[in-house]
# Entry
Amino acid sequence: MQSANMLLKKVVRSSVLPFAAQHGMKKDLFPLSRTLSLSLCLKQDNSCTPSEKTDLDAWKKVMKSGLQEEVSETVSEPQEFSSLAAARETLEMWRLAGRSVPEKVSEEQLKAFMECPSKSAKKKYLRFLYLKELHKKNDRRKMEEKRERRLEAQEQTSKTEETNKSPFACLWASTMDKAYNWRAAQSMIFGQPLVFDMSFENEMSVREVANTVKQLVLSESCNRRSVDPFHIHFCNFKDNSLYHTEFLKHYREAWGKLLITVTDQCYTEVFPKDKLIYLTADSPRVMKSFDHDKIYIVGSMVDKSIKTGVSLARAKRLGLETAALPLEKYLLWNTGAKNLTLDQMMRILLTLKDTDDWKKALEFVPKRKYCGFVNKPISELKKTDLINILKLGKRQQEVQKGFAKNYSKKYKLNQK
Amino acid sequence: LQPPEKPLQDEEWNRLRENFQLPEIFEEVMLNSMIRCNSHIDVAKSLLTHMAKQNGDIAYNMLVKYLTLCVQQGQVSEIRDVYDIMKVRFKILEIGAYNLLIKGLSNSDQWRMALTILEEAKKIMIPSRTSYESCIKAASRHQDVKLAFELYNEMLAKNIVPTLDVLQYFFDFSMGMKGAELQKELFGILLYLRENQIYPHKTFMQSIKLWFESIPGGNWRGQLTNIKDSGQCPVCNHQLEDSNLTEEEYNNLSERIIRDVIHGTDTFRKTSPQEFKAFQTFVESRLPFDIVIDGLNVSHIKPRKMQCENLFEAINCLAKENVRLLVLGRKHMLINSSNWKREIMKEMQNKADFFFADNISEDDAFLLYATLRSGKHCKFVTRDFLRDHKACLSDSLTRHLFRKWQRGHQISKNDGFFSVFSQQPAFRYDCVVQTTGDTWHIPYKDVFEEKYSYRVPRKWLCVQQKR
# Structure
């Protein structure tokens, strides 16, 4: 009954409004109340006799009534708006139309949106912002849930007893940090250098640079946490470059305190040339084992559009030795490009340094990209071995397709 | 979800809604399925009424969905009503709604209104090409030819690519109409096809032919034909345009190949400056060549054969008297291996000039350079479509030049030995729409969707004016 009343009220409110609007929005109570009762009766009539045909255009009246109200409100607003406001308006309409558009858009993002060269670029950018917003919202929700759970747990423990004391002192994060920093400091004196070449800014879009820096931050942290860290060098690093501003966003004041070497010099100026090895997926040479006396260079570049040969060109120009990871040799490659992310490279190199075990090191290659590991080089394997490995793989169909593509020349798979 | 047959009452909608798994999106899903099933609009109306009563408002996307249904069924008065509601309710609409409105109204006697909506849509974004096309069709249906061409030209100015459909439409409705202005515009469309190397399909070609023949007092005669390999039209004996580029185009293309393909952002990506320099002096000292061969590509023609044998056969096949051959390869070919026998390599080097690039360099770029440097008569042999090199060229005009030059200079099919090649032999004539004033030659495709973009049509429409 209550809900029915509510419903009626709503209908009444909306059907009253055109009337009020027609009369110039006079705030006269008397005529208002009269229509109120009138329409009440009308609606009641309607609901009493469901068999009677409903007014199919009733929604139009409702819509028109609601909007008159809004129009009278908006009329006073200035008619012309700036291009920014117009863009904001467009976004709002897209959102209403159910497209992937974020709820909140900052001025900066709006400008970036307007600078997008094409319709599809605009859509893509908005979708990116939308997903970002969605992730943020989800994270916030999860945090809140966690906090509530923690509060509940605290209440329960405070009710029961005081906490039982542990014989060990609790190792807080700051203590761990100190230990890590000791190791990193040691590596800066005795550690093996690892160079990140920061000269690719011109090859990348703003978003690619942001991704690069994110990956570098990840690599730095897992290097710091390792047992025997590398001495990280950022070479060709220009102050006030895009890299720099992105790093400041991530590290803030900690940027100055990082235990790494940052220089605007090229690696060839810092180290002897014959010790340098440039790691690039395009290299014709394949790495056999990890050399503890060499200095490996990794290009700090994310290329979403797969620009081949960019880092190889750097090495060629300087006449450096190059190497690629032996991915083809040890992994039955399935899909995806053979260039790995910077943090994956870092983990692989760290593992290689510590264990010299390719199987362990190549664990860090994303599982989706390969379907099996072989101890012997693939060219030495027999057909039956290969099939056995493939059978172990989960997505056989896919795997076989990928396999057929990669190795069809050498082995003909029996599909039956 | 099956939409109901006839309009429902509130309670019935409520019941349906409760039975649905996700009540929050019930209305949306319901409207979508109505669009899919093309339900009667009364059913949709009753749902809208239900929604209006429930919430006192109807969301924008619901209105758009209803509009879609109305447009689908051509309910003009409903479209107008929805537009009125939207116009007062929202300051601007988004492009999807505009497109729908234009599409819906342009098919009715309210087509003028579609034009005003098009104007409105222009304020917020570039309207879609289908919107333009609806308006163009509406305008021409109502004999406003001038307006139709204005819209068409506006579309081109905004870099919107018109569909073949609308181009054909221009020819269809101009049938039998007189006027120098109109004729000029339609010739303009044909030249547009020429400039963008677009080939009309069969029905479009028929429209063109009929239009030509319908020009009052024009005395045009159209005939379907195949052009001879010599480039002569068997109907009117007219010699088609040469596939060779003009001097200026040729120089432009060679410059751009060096700049964009070989050097690009970094010379080291494809070669190195020393190597390129060495190659340049090598080529300059031995110019001009008649045929340049992509050694590695040719050596893979028959997979069962030894690679150097394949190459040897190719060279023997091409080497005739006074033909200067250049073979491009990589250094690894010089190392004696199971695929590359030193003796055979030696023998080949007596018959042709060889240049060996570094193993990590790209030899294709050298192939292009050597061919272009040798002059217009020089051809090259490879099965490669060279798509990646074409993609390095930054503007579409140069890419077209490249394609044209490639068509005229790439050998990829020959009797016997080269039968493996899937591409066509080098063309002597240029395969584009062309005119001499009193003749038109228009290549056309048999089907609407041509599978291979590199394949050019062999069938032509020859139109000539009898005086």
In short: Chain B touches chain A through 47 residues (CB under 8 Å).
